[in-house]
Amino acid sequence: RYMWKVLQSEALIMLLHNITGIDGLENDPHLHGAGLHYHPAGSRLEMHLDYSIHPITKKERRVNLIVYMNKGWKEEWGGHLSLWEGTLERMEKEATRIVPRFNTAALFRTSDISWHGMPDPVACPPHEARKSVAIYY
């Protein structure tokens, strides 16, 4: 529970405002779409866009924060977050890949061009898994 309090704190929201320049960022008291993600060996996540209008508050979701919790993660195990450039109609090219190492965070806009996913299957040993926390503002 402490983790969610920190992720929804005014101090973090102010930091995110300073990083993004987006005025009026708020936490989501419903944590809709937020949560712990667990991807064992062989799993993957198709490239996709997150929805931008919150189904309860009807406010626009502006940014997505993902924090990785994988101590000892080896790059060759994959599980990279892939961020692509493009339009709603077509992904054009991969902009970057983020290795899911412990305490690494990815912060990106939630919009109609924010293509992201984990298209390559995770190749970690059976006793490991790609773990992360995701939250929206």
TrEMBL record:
It comes from the Eukaryota. InterPro entries: Pro_4_hyd_alph_FE2OG_OXY. Residues 37-137 form the Prolyl 4-hydroxylase alpha subunit Fe(2+) 2OG dioxygenase domain. This is Prolyl 4-hydroxylase alpha subunit Fe(2+) 2OG dioxygenase domain-containing protein. The lineage of its organism: Eukaryota, Cryptophyceae, Pyrenomonadales, Geminigeraceae, Guillardia.
